[in-house]
């Protein structure tokens, strides 16, 4: 073959990527790893927190694959849990996965998220088919909203029966934890005008702090119900928004507070990046700071909503 043709073929080979990955997986050392490595670590964990991007199909597909593979490996020792189901809907969720109610009845009883059919129904279907326990872990939204409006002290006014749906009270919230601190900073900025004056409808500091406390009651409640529903030897795979567990914070912090360092927690974080082969989140964030495993997904990936 002529040298010019060889050069042409070489240039063509360099101009086309061999594939377009839907995602790349990295460990806490920012080293590219395989799904099998993630699966092995997950099977050995007590709690796996899968931090998803709610509208990302790659996250939802990987959640389903991980649940299927863990169910096969754990041989009856897998429990599922999810932020998407609130604690007062546990009976409805249990009835559905145990085959005692229909899809229509479940939808009427469980306050399903708008993207349930496309994004979470595969998980409840898997639990129904394999008789896997499925735990509703999130605080009922009306109580999170109450905290956001009036602070944690407002929970003193709710009935004792309602308090059984939350993490034990009184709840300690450390607003210096990175996630809550960042949330307060974000809310503080949104509650000030260009002049820097406080929002006339209330003190921006109090509003931002209560918003972070509402996040904390969610995190603490999820941690509490994870621990209440996992037995020794089991792995509980929990699905939650990435913000609830990234930076080893949020749910992770409350799990540590409640169970101590002996609990084996594995965290997975999901990020949108321009190039999954060379992932970069932003100038201040390293992949190694986010989780034990990071799923790097093309930023232009099709969304479910």
UniProtKB/TrEMBL annotation:
<keyword id="KW-0449">Lipoprotein</keyword>
<dbReference type="Pfam" id="PF04187">
    <property type="entry name" value="Cofac_haem_bdg"/>
</dbReference>
<protein>
    <submittedName>
        <fullName>ChaN family lipoprotein</fullName>
    </submittedName>
</protein>
<dbReference type="InterPro" id="IPR007314">
    <property type="entry name" value="Cofac_haem-bd_dom"/>
</dbReference>
<feature type="domain" description="Haem-binding uptake Tiki superfamily ChaN">
    <location>
        <begin position="38"/>
        <end position="255"/>
    </location>
</feature>
């Amino acid at each position: 073959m002529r040298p010019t043709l060889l050069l042409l073929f070489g240039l063509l080979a360099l101009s086309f990527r061999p594939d377009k990955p839907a995602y790349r997986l990295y460990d806490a050392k920012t080293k590219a790893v395989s799904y099998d490595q993630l699966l092995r670590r997950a099977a050995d964990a007590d709690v796996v927190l899968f931090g998803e991007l709610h509208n990302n199909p790659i996250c939802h597909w990987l959640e389903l694959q991980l649940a299927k593979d863990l169910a096969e490996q754990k041989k009856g020792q897998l429990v599922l849990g999810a932020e998407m189901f609130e604690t007062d809907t546990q009976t409805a969720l249990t009835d559905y996965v145990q085959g005692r109610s229909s899809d229509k009845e479940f939808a009427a009883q469980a306050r399903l998220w708008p993207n349930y059919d496309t994004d979470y129904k595969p998980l409840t279907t898997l639990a129904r088919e394999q008789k896997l326990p499925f735990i509703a872990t999130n605080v009922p939204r009306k109580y999170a909203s109450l905290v956001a409006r009036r602070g944690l002290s407002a929970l003193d006014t709710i009935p004792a029966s309602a308090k059984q749906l939350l993490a034990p009270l009184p709840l300690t919230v450390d607003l210096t934890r990175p996630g809550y601190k960042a949330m307060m900073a974000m809310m503080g900025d949104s509650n000030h005008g260009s002049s820097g004056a406080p929002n006339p409808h209330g003190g921006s500091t109090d509003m931002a702090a209560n918003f972070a406390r509402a996040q904390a009651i969610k995190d603490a409640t999820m941690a509490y119900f994870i621990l209440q529903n996992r037995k020794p030897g089991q792995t509980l795979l929990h699905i939650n928004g990435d913000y609830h567990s990234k930076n080893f914070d949020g749910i992770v912090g409350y799990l540590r507070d409640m169970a101590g360092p002996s609990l084996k927690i594995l965290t997975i974080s999901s990020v949108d990046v321009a190039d999954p082969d060379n992932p970069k989140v932003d100038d201040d964030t390293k992949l190694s700071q986010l989780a034990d495993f990071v799923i790097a997904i093309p930023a232009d990936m099709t969304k479910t909503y």
